[in-house]
C-alpha cells in the first residue's frame, strides 16, 4: 500500500517539476530567441535579456513561457509578423514588440495567437504595429496590462489594438490602447470580459462589438475616440461602470447600440459626447443608474427601438436630454432625474407630481431640419418649447417620465 | 469733447435710472449664480438677460435720453462746437455709462462664477449688444421729431431683432428645408446682432451638440479665430452704421 502511494506521489510530483530555463541574451550562450525555441520542449521557460532582436517572424509552437527582462525589443522591421503563437499554455510577458509588417490580406500582428487555449499575454509594450494583439479561434486566454500604441492616421492604414475573432472565454484586463483603428475589436467572441482598460484616441471605435453574445465590459475608460463605442448585432451584453467621454463629431457616439437585445447598461458615465447613447433597433435593454452630463444629446432613441427601460438615471447639463426620429414610442422612462424638470412635489415624496416630457419640440425640429440648430436658445424657440411642454401637440405625448425625481441621484 | 462726455455721464448718473439698472443686473446675476448648483444653468438665464433685457434697456433709455436732451443739444449748438462733435459726445457719454453699468452689474459676477472662456465671451458680447442698441436708439430718434414715434421705432426694432427675426428664419428654414441652406443661414445671422451674439455664446455653452453635423458647419465658421473676428467685426459694423447714418442726418437736420 505504501509503495503504491509513494509511486502515486512520485508520478504527481514529476508532473509538477518545472521545465528547464533557457537564457537568451547578447552575453549568454544562446544569442537568438529562435535558437532557444528550437532547443526547448513543452514546459520550458525562455528568459530573454535586454537587447534588440530582429529575427523576423518568431513562431512559438510549444507550450513554453517567454519572459523578457527589462523589455527586450522584438523588432518586425515593418516587414514581418513578430510573434506567432500556435500552441496552448503559452505565456508571453515583458517584451517590447514593435514595428510589425503591414499587409491587408494576412493581417500581420505584433502578437498573433492561432487556434490555442490558455495563452497569457501580459505586461508587454506594443508600439507601432499594424494589429497589436490578434486572437483567432482561441479560448480561455488572458490579455493583461499591455500598453498598446500606434500612430494611425487613416482607417485603412492601421489595424486594431486588440483584435479578437471567433473566441471564447477571454479576459482582457488593464490594457491601454491608443492610436489604432478600433481599440478593442470583438467579432464572434462569447463569454468574455473586458475590464479596466483605457481606450483613447483611436481612429474609429474605442470598442467595437459585433455578434458577440454573453460578454461583459466593466470599468473601462473610452475617451476621445473617432466614433466612440459601438455594440452591434449582439445580445446579452453587460456594460457596467464604464466612462464614455469626449467622443465628438458627426456620427460620434458615447455608446452606439444597433440591433442589440437583452442587455444591461448600469452605472456608466457619459460625459461631453455629441450623443451619449444612440439606439437603433434595440430591444429589451435596461439603462439604469447612469450619468449623462454635458452631452449634445443625452440619448437618441430611434423609433425602431422597443421595450427598453430607462430607469433612475441622472440627466444633467445636456443640450438635449432625449431625441427621437418618429412618433412611435415603445420604451419606458421612470424615476430619472432631469435637470430641466420644472415641476413641483406637493406630497414631499421626492417624486415630481407633474409628468416630465423629456423630448423638447426643438429637438424634434432639429432632427427633421438640422440647420435649425442655428436658432437654438433663441427666445422665440424657448417660447415654442415652453408651450409645447405644457400642451404636447407635435411631440409624442407618451414620451414621458411619469415619476421624475426632484433631486439628482447620488451615483 | 471730453467735457461734454463728462457732463453727460454725470447727468445720467444723477438721473439714477442707470444706477437702478446696474443694481437690478447685479441682483439678477449674483442670485442666478448662487441659486443654481451648476453654473451652466445660471449662464443660460444670464444669456436671456443679455439677449433681451440689455438691448431693451439700452435702446429705450438711450432714445428717451436723446429726446429729453433736445434742449441741451440746442443749447450746445448755439456754442461754437461742431455738430458731429456734439452727437459723438452724446453717443460716447450714453454708451460709456451703460457699458459701465453692464460691466459692474453682470460682468463682475460672470467673471467670478463662469468658466473663463465662456465668461469672457459673454462679457464681450454683452458689451457689444449694449453698444449696438445705443446706436440703434440714435438711429431711431433721429428718424422723427415725435418722441412717442421715435421710442416706438426703437421698441419695434428691438422686438424685430429679439423675436420676429428668429420666427422669420424658422419659417424660411421650413420652406427651404429641401435645399442645402446651412451656409446661407450663417450669412443670414449677420443681419441680426442678437442672433450673432447668441451664436457666439452658444458655441461655448453647447459645445458638444455643436460638434454634430449641423453644428459643425457653424463651428467651422464661428469657432475659428477668423470666424470670431469676422463676427465681432460685423457687430462693430452694427454699432457703426446706424450711428453713422444718424450722424449724417443730424448734421443736415434743421433743428
Question: What does this protein look like?
Answer:
The complex is a heterodimer of chains A (411) and B (255). By secondary structure, chain A is mainly β. Chain A folds into 2 domains: 20-224, Pectate Lyase C-like, CATH 2.160.20.10; 227-359 and 396-411, no CATH class. A 14-stranded parallel beta sheet of chain A has the order 1-2-5-8-11-14-17-20-23-26-29-32-35-38, covered by helices on one side. In chain A, strand 1, helix 2 and strand 2 form a beta-alpha-beta unit. The longest helix of chain A has 15 residues, at 2-16. The termini of chain A are far apart. With 255 residues, chain B is mostly helical. Chain B has one domain (2-252). Chain B has 11 helices and no strands. In chain B, helix 3 (39-68) packs antiparallel against helix 5 (83-113), helix 3 (39-68) runs parallel beside helix 6 (116-143) and helix 6 (116-143) packs parallel to helix 11 (225-252). The longest helix of chain B has 31 residues, at 83-113. The model of chain B has no long low-confidence stretch (mean pLDDT 88). The A-B interface holds A 248-252, 272-275, 294-297, 316-320, 339, 366, 368-382 and B 38, 40-41, 44, 47-48, 51-52, 162-163, 166-167, 169-170, 173-174, 177, 181-182, 185-186, 189, 195, 198-199, 202, 205-218.
Amino acid at each position: 500500500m505504501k509503495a503504491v502511494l509513494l509511486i502515486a506521489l512520485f508520478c504527481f510530483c514529476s508532473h509538477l517539476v518545472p521545465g528547464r530555463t533557457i537564457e537568451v541574451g547578447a552575453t549568454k550562450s544562446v544569442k537568438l530567441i529562435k535558437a532557444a525555441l528550437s532547443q526547448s520542449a513543452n514546459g520550458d521557460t525562455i528568459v530573454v535579456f535586454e537587447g534588440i532582436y530582429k529575427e523576423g517572424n518568431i513562431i512559438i509552437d510549444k507550450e513554453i513561457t517567454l519572459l523578457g527582462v527589462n523589455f527586450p525589443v522584438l523588432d518586425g522591421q515593418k516587414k514581418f509578423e513578430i510573434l506567432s503563437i500556435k500552441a496552448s499554455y503559452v505565456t508571453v510577458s515583458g517584451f517590447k514588440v514593435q514595428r510589425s509588417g503591414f499587409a491587408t490580406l494576412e493581417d500581420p500582428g505584433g502578437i498573433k495567437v492561432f487556434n490555442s487555449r490558455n495563452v497569457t499575454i501580459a505586461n508587454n509594450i506594443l508600439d507601432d504595429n499594424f494589429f497589436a494583439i490578434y486572437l483567432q479561434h482561441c479560448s480561455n486566454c488572458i490579455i493583461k496590462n499591455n500598453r498598446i500604441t500606434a500612430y494611425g492616421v487613416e482607417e485603412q492604414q492601421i489595424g486594431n489594438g486588440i483584435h479578437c475573432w471567433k473566441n471564447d472565454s477571454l479576459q482582457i484586463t488593464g490594457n491601454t490602447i491608443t492610436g489604432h483603428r478600433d481599440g478593442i475589436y470583438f467579432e464572434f467572441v462569447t463569454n468574455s470580459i473586458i475590464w479596466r482598460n483605457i481606450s483613447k484616441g483611436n481612429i474609429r471605435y474605442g470598442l467595437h462589438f459585433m455578434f458577440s453574445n454573453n460578454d461583459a465590459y466593466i470599468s473601462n475608460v473610452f475617451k476621445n475616440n473617432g466614433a466612440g463605442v459601438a455594440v452591434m448585432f449582439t445580445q446579452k451584453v453587460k456594460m457596467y461602470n464604464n466612462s464614455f467621454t469626449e467622443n465628438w463629431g458627426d456620427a460620434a457616439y458615447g455608446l452606439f447600440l444597433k440591433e442589440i437585445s437583452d442587455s444591461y447598461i448600469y452605472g456608466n458615465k457619459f460625459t461631453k459626447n455629441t450623443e451619449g447613447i444612440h439606439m437603433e433597433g434595440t430591444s429589451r435593454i435596461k439603462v439604469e443608474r447612469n450619468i449623462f452630463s454635458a452631452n449634445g444629446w443625452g440619448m437618441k432613441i430611434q423609433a425602431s427601438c422597443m421595450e427598453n427601460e430607462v430607469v433612475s438615471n441622472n440627466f444633467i447639463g445636456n443640450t438635449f436630454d432625449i431625441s427621437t426620429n418618429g412618433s412611435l414610442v415603445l420604451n419606458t422612462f421612470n424615476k430619472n432625474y432631469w435637470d430641466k424638470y420644472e415641476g413641483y412635489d406637493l406630497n414631499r415624496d421626492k417624486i415630481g407630481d407633474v409628468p416630465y416630457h423629456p423630448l423638447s419640440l426643438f429637438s424634434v425640429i432639429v432632427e427633421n431640419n438640422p440647420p435649425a440648430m442655428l436658432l437654438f436658445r433663441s427666445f422665440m424657440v424657448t417660447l415654442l418649447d415652453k408651450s409645447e411642454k405644457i400642451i404636447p401637440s407635435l411631440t409624442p405625448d407618451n414620451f414621458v417620465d411619469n415619476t421624475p425625481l426632484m433631486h439628482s441621484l447620488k451615483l | 469733447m471730453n467735457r461734454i462726455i463728462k457732463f453727460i455721464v454725470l447727468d445720467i448718473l444723477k438721473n439714477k435710472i442707470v444706477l437702478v439698472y446696474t443694481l437690478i443686473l447685479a441682483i439678477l446675476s449674483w442670485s442666478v449664480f448662487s441659486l443654481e448648483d451648476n453654473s451652466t444653468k445660471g449662464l443660460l438665464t444670464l444669456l436671456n438677460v443679455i439677449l433681451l433685457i440689455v438691448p431693451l434697456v439700452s435702446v429705450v433709455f438711450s432714445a428717451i435720453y436723446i429726446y429729453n436732451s433736445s434742449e441741451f443739444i440746442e443749447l450746445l449748438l448755439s456754442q461754437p462746437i461742431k455738430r458731429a462733435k456734439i452727437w459723438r459726445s452724446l453717443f460716447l457719454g450714453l454708451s460709456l455709462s451703460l457699458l459701465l453699468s453692464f460691466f459692474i452689474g453682470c460682468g463682475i459676477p460672470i467673471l467670478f462664477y463662469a468658466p473663463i472662456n465662456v465668461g469672457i465671451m459673454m462679457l464681450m458680447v454683452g458689451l457689444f449688444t449694449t453698444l449696438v442698441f445705443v446706436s440703434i436708439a440714435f438711429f431711431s430718434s433721429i428718424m422723427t421729431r415725435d418722441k412717442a414715434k421715435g421710442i416706438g421705432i426703437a421698441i419695434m426694432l428691438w422686438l424685430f431683432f429679439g423675436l420676429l427675426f428668429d420666427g422669420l428664419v424658422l419659417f424660411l428654414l421650413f420652406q427651404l428645408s429641401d435645399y442645402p441652406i446651412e451656409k446661407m443661414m450663417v450669412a443670414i445671422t449677420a443681419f441680426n446682432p442678437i442672433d450673432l451674439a447668441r451664436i457666439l455664446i452658444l458655441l461655448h455653452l453647447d459645445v458638444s451638440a455643436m460638434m454634430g453635423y449641423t453644428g459643425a458647419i457653424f463651428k467651422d465658421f464661428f469657432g475659428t479665430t477668423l470666424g470670431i473676428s469676422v463676427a465681432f467685426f460685423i457687430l462693430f459694423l452694427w454699432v457703426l452704421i446706424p450711428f453713422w447714418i444718424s450722424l449724417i442726418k443730424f448734421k443736415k437736420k434743421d433743428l
